[in-house]
Design a protein that fits this description.
481 residues; 5-stranded mixed β-sheet
Amino acid sequence: MTEANIIDVCEIFGGKPAPKDESAFEIEGIPFVRMRDLGRYHLTTNLDTTDNKIGYTYAKTNNLKPIPKGAVLIPRSGSVALNHRAILAQDSIIVSHICALVVKDSTSLSNRFLYYWLCQFDMNKIAKKTTGLDAINFSDLGKISISYPDLDTQNKIVAILDKAQEIFDKREATIAKYDELLRATCLEMFGDIANNPKGIDKKPLKEFGEIITGNTPPRSDKSNYDTNYIEWIKTDNIISQSHILTPAIEYLSETGFANARYVNENSLLVACIAGSIGSIGRSAIANRKVTFNQQINAIVPANDVSVYFLYWMFKVSAEYVQSFATGGMKRLLTKGEFEKIPFIKPDYDDQLNFEKVALYYSDFKSKLIQHQIQSENLLKSLSQQVFSERIIIDVDAELEALINAIDLDRKEEENSIDSVINDITFIQRLIDRLNEQEFEDKDQYDKAKYVLFRIMKQEDNLVKQIFKDNKIQLTLQNETA
C-alpha cells in the first residue's frame, strides 16, 4: 500500500471566471463546465454535456486552457458541502468555483480509483469560510493523504464500485425518461406556447400571479448572514432535474431576512439573469418559505393558476421564454419584460386535471429519487468499506467463485469468463494453482483447465506451455522460463 499526499500524485488546477462577454460563447468550441453542470450529475464518471462552449479564438486570446479528459472535478467554493464529484469525458474549460485533479502517473494511480476515493472523502473537513461561502484552499487540498494499492488491485476495486455507480446512473436515466413522458403529456394537452395550436387564450405573466424580484442584503454587514435561519436561494438551486428547489448553501439571519424578499411554499422561482441564454427560464417550485437573490423572479400564483401547470409550461417552453431575454454583458429578463411574456392560460379545471397527472408523476419521481439516494448510499458504503479495508479484494475467492459457477455440460457461450479475460492478476493465480494442482478434486481441476483453455483460445498470445523440471508447465508469455 502506497501513501502520498494529493499534491505528490496529482496536478491541481483551478478554473476561470465565466466570461462576461456573450460573444465568448459559440455553438462550436471548447466545453465550459459550470457548477450547475457538476450539480446536474452530482456523481458521475462521465461528465460529457454542458450548457455552453467557449469559442476557440476567444479561449486562445484569453489564455483559457482546457483541463484534459480524465481529470477528476470537485467543487472549490460555494457548493463544497454537496460533495459533487465527476470525471471529465472531454477536454473542457472549468469555471472558477471548480477545481480539477489530474493524475501525474497513470501507471501507478488510476483516475477512476482517485474518483471513488474522493467520493468517500468529505471536503467539508478542509473547507473554510470565505466572504460567507465555503471554499477549499489548494494548499489544504494538496496535503490530503491518500492510500492506494498496486494498479491491479485498484482496477479490482474500481470494477466493484463501477457496478454500484452503474445502478446509480440507471436510476438517473429512468428519472430523465419519466421527465420526457410528462413533457409529452403536457404538450399533448395544451400544445406549445409559441404556436398555440389549440387556440388557448394568452395572457401576460403578470396575470398569473404576483411577481417578485429577489435581492441581496448587503454583504458588508455580516449580521445579515447566518447558517440556519432561512435559506437564501440562488440560480444554482434551480436545476433541470428537480421540480423542487434544491437546498441552499447560504442562509440569512433574522436581520438579513428583514432586508430580503421572500415567498411561501407553492411559489415558482424562475432564473431571469444568467451568464448564458440556456439558463434563462429555468424554474423550480418552492416547497417551503425561502428568500432569493436578484437573479430570480418569483411568481406567487393567483387563485386560478396551478403552480404545477405553470412549472411545466416553463419546462416545455424554454426557447420561447429565452426569446424575450435581452443581450448585453449578461442575458436577462427584467421584471418589466418578464411580466409581459404572453403565456397560454387554459381553464383552471384543465390546469387541475394536468396537476393531478403531474402530482402523481412527482410522487412516483420522488420514489425514484429515493431509490437513487439508496444507490448513492450503496456506492458510499461500498467505497468506505473498500477504502477502510473492510472489504478485501481476494483473488482466490474470485477464482473459487468462477470455477464453481462453471458447468462443463453447458455450451461454451453459457459459461461466461468475460470478467477475467483481461485480468492478468487473476490469470496468473489460475496458472499458479494449475501448475501446483491446488484443487480439492478432479472436477475443480477440470473446470480450472476449461477456464484457462477458453482464455488461451480467445487470447492466443497470452499464455504458453513450457517444459520445466521434467514436466510441462504453464506461464504468461511475458514471463521468463
